[in-house]
Protein 1
Amino acid sequence: MIRAGVVLLTATGLAAIERIRDGITYYTLPGGGVEDGETPQEAAIRETHEELGLIVRVDALVAAVNFRGSTQYYYRAEVLGGEFGAGTGEELASPADSKAGSYKAVWIEPRQLAVLDVRPVSIAKALATAPDCNRLINDWSSTPLVVDEV
């Protein structure tokens, strides 16, 4: 399955989804599966609205992560409107003790990326060690990060 998501960095931080599943807390970049007839860019926009409540514009592909036989495409995003945390995706209604676990929109400060379990790990590690996250994301716009994760 092809997945698409966003790398959305603002003055508030990096947009993420806090997941609590089986008693484990971790964070993912907003995104999800590409539906039939949808481009990865369209899926990234839709998933960001469903999960974060934000309307975004995506432009450059900044990362492609190959994970468990699937490719995940991440795009640089800019907020156009909406209300952060007002996502309406069905997964947001899941309690922490459900099989799917819980989902919550959060902002992560770049300095926290080094200590939190943020996925994809390769993107989080690169941002955590960058002296300027915005500059790194802009650099990825011309040469996307391409990695294989286990």
Protein 2
Amino acid sequence: MKVGFYQFNPVFGEIKRNLDQVVARLHEVECDLMVLPELFASGYQFASQEEVERLSEPVPDGETTARLIEVARSRGMYVVAGLAERGERGCYNSAVVVGPSGFLGCYRKTHLFFEETLFFLPGDTGFRVWDIGEAKVGVLICFDWFYPESARTLALKGADILCHPSNLVLPHCPDAMVTRCLENRVFSITANRIGSEARGGKDRLTFIGSSEIVAPNGRILHRASRDREEVTVLEIDPAEARKKSLNPYNDLLQGRRPDLYAR
């Protein structure tokens, strides 16, 4: 199975421009599963609630989801991508999962970071897993990585691959995903962005790049640069993520003691 990410620098507020760029690049790629960054079409550093509402879209009826479905059908691939979603109660920092058959579903970010808490509602979907044939994929968004329960919940629900759209500014995540993969015996694909934003008189946010694909044994199969655009596609065997036995006596998930974990 060929999986990959697209690391790039979106232009804030230029949804059509960003979509055109992404779609053009994906039409050059041969892969089964592609992960795009968090809020890849809108940009990240909102200055007002009005901006959030203006740049958010309904799911699955918005332009971004429609364009992604179009390229997924054309290229025979699955795409996981972060976007600002306009829901009935407000706006969410979300990710859509689309494929050759169309729209599969949406995940709303559970753990909001920094000023996201001012502009978005906390996610209410719970952590979800989709069967895409060759693998089962789970989705978490950026700061969700900071909570080990996020990845563990997806592993318990059968995810082989953690798809992780991100706009990372903290330096710790690329190394931490090694642990997330080890402790759950899963693959992960972190698709981060590059560049920086300084809007509305706020401090500049600089995104750390370093998108990566990590194997269930914790090996970093590839890590991108901190500051260059990059499309990477690698071949993996998702079956490796279904081997939870560490040795004849220890099965990673069966050995859990949830009765002792509660507060």
